[in-house]
Amino acid sequence: MSDASSLGATTNDDGSTAMSMAAAGQPVLELKGIGKQFGAIRALQSVDLSIAAGEVVGLMGDNGAGKSTLVRIIAGNFPPSQGTIHFGGREVHFHRPMDSRSVGIEVVYQDLALANNLTAAANVFLGRELKRNFGPLVLLDHKGMEARALELFRELRSETRPNDLVKDMSGGQRQAVAIARTRLSNARLVMMDEPTAAISVRQVEQVLSLIHRLKEQGIAVMLISHRMPDIFAVCDRVVVMRRGEKKADKPVGETSPEEVTALITGAKEAA
C-alpha cells in the first residue's frame, strides 16, 4: 500500500490524488541526509535539499555527479539508503513512481515519452483517458479531452493545439504537451530533465516561458540542466553536485556562471 493514503492525500476532480500542503513558507520538498549506495559504489552522500512552492531550483553537475540518482529517488524509482524525504511537511516513503506521483510529484524526462503518431490531446491524457458510459458501452471522451487539453495549453500560453500531431511539432511544443500532462494531476513539484537540450534558440525561449508559467501558478520546479544561460535566466537558486555531494546551494543573484563552472569542475571545492 502506498504511503500517500496515510499522509493526507486528497482526491481531485479528475480522480488523481494530491498532497494537502503544509503551512505557507514551509518547503514543498525537503531532503535530509539523503545517501545512496549501489554495492560498494556510493552515488550520493548526505544530501540536504529543499524547494518551496513557486520556486525554481537549478540542479547542475557533471556526468556522474549524482543528479540522476537524486532525481530518481525523488521520483520513486528506488529508495535512498540513508536519510528522509518530506513532502508537504510530512515524511514520505516511495516504493515506486506511482507513490511519488500520488503526492504531487511529476517528472518530465529528456525523451518526453510522447507517442509521435497521436495528437497533443491524446498524449496529454495517455494512460489517464476520460471515458463516457453509454449503457453497457464505455467510450473515450475525445471532445472532453480536447477541451481540457486546450485549457491547459492556454494556461501555459502555448500555441500548441489539441489536434496537432506530435510528430509535426517543434521541440518547444513537445515540451508544452509533456508539461500539460503534469497539470492533470495538480502537480506540486515538476522536475524537468534537460528540457532545452538539442532545440533551437526560439524553442528554448518557449520552454523557459513554460517554466515561468508553472512558477506563476505556485508550482515548484526543479530544472536539471547543463545549460548555464537557462539556469541563470529562470532559476531562483542553483544547486551544484559533484561526486555525489552537494557543493553549493545559492541564490543565482549571489553567484556567477564562472563560480558555478568552478564548482562543477572542482576548481573550487565548495561555496
From TrEMBL:
One Pfam family, short name please?
Answer: ABC_tran
The record ties this protein, via InterPro entries, to: AAA+_ATPase, ABC_carbohydrate_import_ATPase, ABC_transporter-like_ATP-bd, P-loop_NTPase
The record's function comment reads: Involved in beta-(1-->2)glucan export. Transmembrane domains (TMD) form a pore in the inner membrane and the ATP-binding domain (NBD) is responsible for energy generation.
Report domain ABC transporter positions.
29-268
Work out whether the entry's keyword set contains ATP-binding.
yes
Give a yes or no for keyword Methyltransferase in this entry.
no
Top-level lineage group: Bacteria
Q: Which CDD domains match?
A: ABC_Carb_Monos_I (cd03216)
Q: Which SMART domains match?
A: AAA
GO MF terms here are: ATP binding; ATP hydrolysis activity
Q: Which UniProt keywords apply?
A: ATP-binding, Nucleotide-binding
Q: Which SUPFAM superfamilies match?
A: P-loop containing nucleoside triphosphate hydrolases
Q: Which organism is it from?
A: Bradyrhizobium oligotrophicum S58
Query: What's this protein's name?
Result: Sugar ABC transporter ATP-binding protein
